[in-house]
TrEMBL record:
It comes from Chloropicon primus. Residues 166-194 are annotated as: Disordered. Residues 4-31 form a coiled coil. This is Uncharacterized protein. Keywords: Coiled coil.
């Protein structure tokens, strides 16, 4: 549970970082567009004036922000994968315990029926009661473990869902970025044709 709690906190932290980087990237992109509208596109061999040199290199900053977002998305994906593995493992454990619990219950039922038979002695019934108490305790422990698994299952599911939300958020961000880039390319092509 401690591991899952830390993973959940890590996902929340990464989501906040992605959101902050997305906002920063949007601001940088707008500044970059404004910069180009004022200065235009310079040829590669152009000499830069001192004023131009003082301007921030917005495309590089934007690219770094995009690369950092990609790194964060990879980390979120890894966390999501681990949470999914935990959920599958707890599901298998639950199924195993349910099976054992049912076996204990069936054994108690059959023993009770056998000890009601006329040929069963009082000594056998005494031993049977001892075994029945052990089976009852085992069944109770099975129920207790099943209850203990529920918070773990809920936590792993919550982490997996949160990671998927982060991945979707990041995917939408990249799609918007690609659409913006494609729009700029189309605008440049139209200007060249004009």
């Amino acid at each position: 549970e401690e591991l899952l709690r830390k993973r959940d906190e890590e996902i929340s932290r990464l989501k906040e970082q992605i959101a902050a980087l997305t906002d920063a990237a949007d601001v940088v992109n707008k500044e970059n567009q404004a910069f180009r509208s004022v200065y235009g596109e310079l040829p590669p061999d152009a000499e830069l004036t001192e004023e131009f040199k003082r301007k921030p290199k917005l495309p590089q900053q934007f690219q770094r922000a995009v690369e950092y977002c990609s790194i964060l998305e990879a980390e979120v994906f890894a966390i999501s994968k681990e949470a999914k593995l935990v959920r599958h493992a707890t599901s298998e454990i639950r199924q195993h315990i349910v099976t054992q619990r049912d076996v204990f219950g069936e054994a108690r039922h059959q023993m009770a029926a056998a000890f009601r038979a006329p040929e069963c002695t009082e000594e056998m019934r005494g031993k049977g009661r001892e075994v029945d108490e052990i089976l009852a305790m085992a069944r109770w422990r099975s129920e207790d473990v099943l209850k203990s698994l529920r918070p773990l299952e809920r936590a792993s599911l919550a982490i997996e869902v949160a990671a998927k939300d982060s991945k979707t958020f990041g995917g939408q961000y990249h799609n918007n970025n690609n659409n913006n880039n494609n729009g700029e390319e189309r605008q440049e092509e139209e200007e060249e044709e004009g």
